[in-house]
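Quick one, tokens below. Sequence please?
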């Protein structure tokens, strides 16, 4: 239990640290940040339940007013911004990425990449695009077109999540909580 709490707190801190990477804000008011990489890693490394809990801890700190989102944003006001859908989707994205990791027998690196695409892109975009449509008063099609601007960066984050998860599995297999220890570690087994 104590080990799980430590991992949850550590990954919540990782998401916060990734917010220090300078953001790039697009015309729609939704910033490109490195924090979604942290959300992907929560799922691929910690698994569904712990990954979602790490993200929920991070979100609680932001909602309490800590300026942990990229650009120093925090407080309840983040739920009214064009990026609110993405923020609300963070725990769902981590949960789904972790769920995929826990259930696939693919090698770790490939599984983490696939889990990141499904959770960190597909699920997150459902929430994010819906949120942009509501906040900006756009149709879902218009919001989806705006959301596609994030895809190239998110593909890079998927690759990074796969590589980082693979490196953790090789260096410290016991730290990869999303997989039974009997599954292959090598990316190409």
């Amino acid at each position: 239990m104590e080990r799980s709490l430590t991992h949850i707190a550590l990954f919540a801190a990782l998401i916060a640290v990734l917010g220090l990477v300078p953001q790039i804000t697009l015309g729609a008011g939704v910033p490109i940040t490195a924090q979604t990489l942290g959300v992907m890693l929560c799922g691929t490394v910690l698994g569904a339940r712990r990954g979602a809990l790490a993200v929920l801890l991070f979100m609680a700190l932001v909602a309490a007013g800590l300026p942990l989102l990229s650009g120093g944003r925090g407080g309840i006001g983040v739920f009214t911004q064009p990026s609110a859908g993405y923020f609300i989707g963070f725990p769902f994205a981590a949960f789904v990425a972790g769920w995929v990791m826990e259930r696939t027998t693919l090698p770790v690196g490939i599984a983490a990449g696939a889990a990141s695409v499904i959770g960190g892109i597909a699920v997150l975009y459902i929430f994010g695009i819906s949120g942009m449509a509501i906040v900006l008063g756009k149709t879902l099609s218009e919001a989806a077109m705006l959301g596609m601007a994030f895809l190239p960066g998110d593909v890079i984050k998927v690759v990074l999540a796969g590589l980082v998860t693979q490196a953790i599995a090789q260096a410290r297999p016991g730290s990869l909580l999303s997989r039974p220890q009997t599954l292959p570690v090598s990316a190409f087994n």
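Helices lie at 2-18, 35-46, 48-63, 84-103, 108-136, 140-147, 151-171. Residues 108-136 form the longest helix (29 residues).
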